[in-house]
Amino acid sequence: MKSKIILLCVLFFLTTAAVSAQAKNAPRSIISTTALIRKYHDQKELSGMQKGELLELYIERIKVLVKTLPYIALVTKPGVTMADLGIPDTSENKKFLDGQAEGTTVFLDTTVDFQRKMMPYSDKGNLIAAILFYETTLKSLHEFNEM
Questions:
Q1: How far, in Å, are 13, 23, 41, 47, 48 from residue 66 at the CA level?
Q2: Contact 10, 53 (CB under 8 A)
Q3: 62 pLDDT above the threshold of 50
């Protein structure tokens, strides 16, 4: 009975290791798959929201813009990999992509901390205008692909 349990444990760990290794070698998206806006809003809808809700929308839009804009010459949608674009999947290119992702994360962490501390002091009308501006910019990325 003990040998069966030990055998099952060993098989479990080997399977976990194999799956983990495959995940590391899987192609990564150039634009983070979290760079999506689920819903766009209009002025009337935003005016009916509390400032805390507006702040969260504002931060979400900043995150999407930061994760998208540096790459628009390559791609404008999440989920596209280097291989999809014909970029060699070399260790050097992966290193550059990983470094860029890490730098973006550090920048966003700092920016979001700042936004959470300072934006509550902003005027609600300015916050709404900024959200609408960011949403217009994000919508225009869909048109960018058609140029």
A1: 38, 25, 20, 25, 27
A2: no
A3: yes
Structure tokens at 45: 């809808």
- pLDDT (tens digit, 9 = 90+) per residue, 72-89? 888 888 888 988 889 998
pTM beyond 0.70: the answer is yes
Packing angle, helices 51-68 and 91-118, rounded to 10 = 160
For residue 76, which of 143, 4, 132 has the smallest C-alpha distance? 143
